[in-house]
Structures are given as structure tokens and as C-alpha cells.
Amino acid sequence: MPNFDIVKKTKPELTFRVSSIIGKFDLQSEEVIENFKGEINFPEDWNIGLIVGKSGSGKTTIAKQLFDDFYITKFDYTNKSILDDMPSHCTVSEITNAFNSVGFSSPPSWLKPYSVLSNGQQMRVDLARAILEQNEMIVFDEFTSVVDRNVAKIGSFAIQKSIRKAKKKFIAVGCHYDIEEWLMPDWVFNTDTMSFHSFEGQKKNRPDIKFKIYQAADKSIWKMFSRHHYLSHNHNNAAKVFIATINDEIAGFLSVLHLPHPRAKTIKKVHRLVILPDYQGAGFGLKFLNEVGAIYKKEKWRFTIKTSAPSLIYALKKLPKWNLRQYGRHMGGKSGVIHSSSDKSQTSKHRLTASFELK
Questions:
Q1: How confident is the model at residue 355 (pLDDT cuts 50, 70, 90)?
Q2: pTM of the model
């Protein structure tokens, strides 16, 4: 249980400008002294901690003093793809699993350098790398400080899920109080009042999230999502389009086509499913898929999806309401499915795929 009594002294060089300020404001000392004193009583079993307070209240000083071995701000990223910036001992599978676990689930973005990613994506990449470094604890300073507050909340919720699943210990250090509800910490230390509060044993309820879906008449909205699709930027204009909003912000795209089949005439299939990067990792893709599927099931349609996205396959396999119909590499010619496009990127040929149907 860390106790701390930190005295921080700063003595500037007596330059002309420094001497002028000391004289002008009649400062009593040439030395600036700050004192931070408190105690963090870790609960017996915890995964998420939060050190929060206003700028200048001592957050960084305390975090570095108590957790210097686990303290991170920014990693060095020098490669043309963030995949190659991850620890050398990690396999590609381990890296992609870490990316997916923190809600960074856009394979096209995995090929980019760190410098071109959005602030929200960079935050998740930093966390994925920290997880892959195999440290027993991660202390993340300036947590969510450079991202939009709506993105910060969703990102906090996604990140706490991945930390608990990985059974890691994570301490967020930041100046924004709005993330506490979404990060759902096991304890909080407030540097404004130097007070500690434990939530050990208390039920952690998911924050209220305003999630809505509606059918979109203007299908050109696909342009907003196309570059984030893991497989293809193309879209069939015959597909019916649904849009999801999260807290009144556009967040997801799902389109549905009728499946041409020589015998079954009542099958609808998911054509494209995309959740924007800032909203990934919190389960919105599955919620979107289930709600649109329920609409079609109510109208007596069969509702299916074929995907090669590992994270989606893993998630659907765990859901009792989805039946796994096919898994493997589809070589074509025997399934009876009619492909309407000659573009190989539009078909599942030679790719490892899984087909599911909503019960």
C-alpha cells in the first residue's frame, strides 16, 4: 500500500529575466517547493485504477514516484507499419489479438505508420503495445487527454474490458473526471483533495449509451466507412443500408443484400458491416448486427453473415443465438451460392471464412 510524501524543489538559474520576476512580484524565495502527501490503499483484488485531478495537482509526479518501473507516456514508433513496431517476440496472431482486444480492429489501419493514425487510434495502439510488453502493471499518463470526450468515454469502456480480460493491472492518469464512469475503476485517487476511494465489491454497471439505428436512403454515406472495411471499399448499390448512432454521433454502417440461391428464396445476407475505429471494442458491432437481424427475422427472413474477420468469428461463436453453418476455406463450385461479381475481393474464395445464421 504505497504511502508518499513527495517534496519537489525547483531552483531556476538566476538569469536577468528570472531575477526581474522575483523582484517584480516580491517572491520570498528563489526556490519553488511543492509537497504531495497521501496514501493509496490498493484493494485486495483489482485491475483498474485511476489517478485524476486538475493540471498541476501532482498526478504525474505521484505516478512516476510510485510506479516508475511501469510508467509509460509514448513509445518510439519508427517503422512504416505499426505491426513492425510491436515487440519482436510477439507473433502476428498475438499482435492482432492485442489490437482487437483494445478495440483497434481495422486491418487496413494496421498497415499504416503510427504518425498517420488518429489520436484515438494512437491511444489504443499504445495500450496494445504495453499489453504485449508483458509488464505486470501499466501506468498510462495523459490518458484520453488528446481525444474527443465522446471518443474518450467509449475508448475507456473498451479498454477496461480488455484489461480485465487479460488480467492485467492498469492505472490511468488524467485530468478528465468524465471517464471514471466509463473506465469503471476499482479505485480512484483524487489529487485535488489527496483522497483515496475504493470500489472493491461494488457492482460496476455499464454506463447508459444512447444507441440508435435507422435506415439510410442516401447510400453515398458508405464513403464515410469504406476505408475502414477490412476487405473491400466497394459497395453494392442494391443493398439496403442501416446506420447506427452512438450518443447521437454516426458510428456504424451495415448493409444487407438478398442472397440468390437455387433453392432457398428467403435468405438475406450481410453485405458490409463497419464500426468506425473510435467506437470499436465496446460490443457495438454485435449489437448492431443483432438488432438488424431481429428486424429481418420478424419479417420471416433468414438472416446470415459470412466473414473472415477473426474477432467477429470469435464473438459470434460464443453467442447461442447464432448458428455456425460453415467454417474453412471456400474453394467455390459446390456451395450452390451464386456470386454476382467477378471481382475476387467481393467473394470469399480461398479465404478462411465462417458463415453464421441468426436463429
A1: very high
A2: 0.74
